[in-house]
Write the structure tokens for this entry.
Amino acid sequence: MKNQNISLKICIVVVISALLFHFGVDYYKKQVTQKVINYLVLEKGYQSTDIAEIKTYISKAPVVSTSVIFKDERNAMYMYKSDNGQMEQYHCIPAINDLKQKYIHAENP
């Protein structure tokens, strides 16, 4: 009986921990996405309607990055990260393997 209670308590703790982690990561990604939107709108002069797609990823390096596709340039993806509290664009990626791609939203061409 005691073993069943301990097993049940462990299962409950594991499930609650997993849910907290999942929702915590989701909440954090939404915060980072909003910071990138604020950076683009308030500091770079874009309208939020200029953005076709925006998504924040948690991966290797940089640990957290956000991809942005602009409505007027759907064949390019711009990557943003926070560096010492400052948002910056750190990479441009073509949608197709086009080495001559001109990025019209590149901050450091």
Q: What stands out?
A: DSSP finds one helix and four strands in the chain. The chain has a mean pLDDT of 84. The first strand starts at residue 51 and ends at 58.
